[in-house]
Amino acid sequence: MSLDLPRSPQGAPPLAVQVWGHGALFTRPELKVERVSYPVMTPSAAVGVLEAIYWKPEFSWQVVAIEVLNEIRQFTLRRNETTDLAPLADAASGRRRIDTVANRVQRNAICLRDVAYRIHAHVVPRKHASKPEAAYRDQFRRRVTRGSCFTQPYLGTREFTAHFGDPDDRPRWNHSEDLGIMLHSVNHETSPPSFTWFFAQLTDGVLYVRPEDVITRGVA
Fold it and tell me: Are strands 35-36 and 104-125 parallel, antiparallel or unpaired?
């Protein structure tokens, strides 16, 4: 069943890419001790996958829908993490090394098993874009078909590799559920990072990301 999704200002339909993997962990940021995954991919994680495949400073990605292809299944994983975190500038310059041995802790994580999604998103050119939207769209399609990427995309955390390819006609999971308030995006330019949220509703296997559902403030 085709989706009725908004077109870009230039009249183009959203681009689509299919992603899948053996596991995923889309961490709820409000849970600090144990990592618990949202039941489906977040728009922020979808943007991360798209940028790993094709990123340019001349445009940004706007996710409009995520189709859930597999039934939601969970499993528990014990992960080694470190409590020693260095500022980004210190880590990039090599001025400070992280002591992972002395600051290692084990934490449980509730993850997702055997996930698959179809991401639908628009290319949004920035003011300094040197090419029309169609050029970026064509380049993205070619990269997806070839299996090319700038960095290996992942599903929430780096241990869960994301495979990707051209979308097919595989039916989505026919399920509807109110998912409550979900993470929409993270702004790392602020200190500490700031979050944007949205009211998430899974409708017949589709998570629609509508601008009117996005909350810019008022949620701790």
Answer: parallel
